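Internal ticket - ligand job 332, NAP:
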Amino acid sequence: MDMEYRRLGRSGLQVSALSFGSWVSFGNQLDVERGEACMVAAYDAGVNFFDNAEAYAAGKSETIMGEILQRQGWARDSFIVSSKVYWGGSKPTQRGLSRKHIYDACHAAMNRLQVDYLDLYFCHRPDPNTPIEETVWAMNDLIRQGKVLYWGTSEWSAQQIMEAHMIARQYNLLPPTMEQPQYHMFHRERVEVEYARVYREVGLGTTIWSPLASGVLTGKYNDEVPDDSRVNLPGYEWLKEMVFSEEGQARIQKVRELTPIADELGVSMAQLAIAWCLKNPNVSTVITGASRVSQVEENMKAMAIVEQLDDDVMAQIEAVLDNKPEPGAFQL
Ligand SMILES: NC(=O)c1ccc[n+]([C@@H]2O[C@H](COP(=O)([O-])OP(=O)(O)OC[C@H]3O[C@@H](n4cnc5c(N)ncnc54)[C@H](OP(=O)(O)O)[C@@H]3O)[C@@H](O)[C@H]2O)c1
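stdout (structure tokens):
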């Protein structure tokens, strides 16, 4: 089945429903050659959005992606590339969402990615030490200067996103178009409940992350830890601890219970988990991650199985997950 393209929120930007990100993999597991093979497999499957951040591998991830974009020579108007600002270094002026760091980080990301504008630029987290007003102005200025096309947030609360919109409205500035939240079968509250009013009021788009809960939802950790998996990487001990915590083990048990549903459909557990995210109409794009081409190829096929997830299958999944978030009385 062909790739589906969705509007990024209320904007006119058509983003592929499956996209590809470089967190953990680029610079830690993948060099230019191997990263290139993954990006080409994704692009050939119809992916038009590649996600990155200044923090990924301390900038190396963007440098690798920039080299790949150069080597491939894809038409600049055929792909969307992002960066995120927040963790740029250890000095006080190298982090957060001040006008200064946003300005410096944007230029550094464009240099590393070897592009003369960023399609999407995200505030990687809310910054309690910078007034939202300063951040909205800084993002608006970058857009007016032609360095950024759309700006957004990542892991901001509904209230913070709405505050940015109110400031933008007050001063006639460009508001955030999209948010990048964590969303997968085990992490649902924010995307399904907290943002409900934000979708309605301002047409928020979402570029959701970790659809496989860092691989847990593939079933790869059901019985053992494969040597070449993310949790074994130096610096990712925290992830291993999470996977093997009590909560992590409860999740793995759920994956075991979900596997027969995937088997019945003739798909892999990874494909079922990604397709489940795609079913949510408020998801503009599911950012996938991979450490090898075979994973990209497997994950891209999730697009084709979305239609197999009818009400009956979704109810079976819901019964196993047993974690449907309740709508709040007041959701902002
Ligand atoms: N905004 C944020 O704060 C934020 C945070 C995290 C991620 N993100 C974005 O979201 C993207 C995706 O996140 P993610 O990488 O955590 O996604 P994920 O889908 O939860 O995990 C991807 C990892 O799972 C394993 N995997 C993927 N497909 C597999 C398959 N078919 N079979 C077996 N293993 C498979 C691979 O790791 P191994 O092979 O190494 O095990 C792969 O790197 C990131 O690249 C980044 O762009 C954003």
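Auto-summary: Residues 21-25, 51, 154-155, 180, 209-215, 218, 220, 229-230, 270, 287-291, 295, 298-299 surround NAP (CB under 6 Å). The chain has one domain: 5-321.
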